[in-house]
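CHAIN AND CONFORMATION:

***
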Amino acid sequence: MKADKISKENIRVFVMSFYLSFLQDEIVGPFFIAKLGEDIHSEQWKTHLEVIVGFWISLALGKP
């Protein structure tokens, strides 16, 4: 997906897409699976992803 402008939703979609592919990596994937589990829809993953999305939103859009 290519977007014309940065938005909260675009950042959220990008982060989710990144992590879904990231988990397939044979080097870093097992580390995150060991820490957060295999189910990216679990509460641990939801908490982690919200932090990451919030971080990128604050950097890209200048919002806390």
Observations:
- The helical segments are 8-22, 29-36, 43-61.
- The longest helix spans residues 43-61.
- The two ends are 25 Å apart (CA to CA).
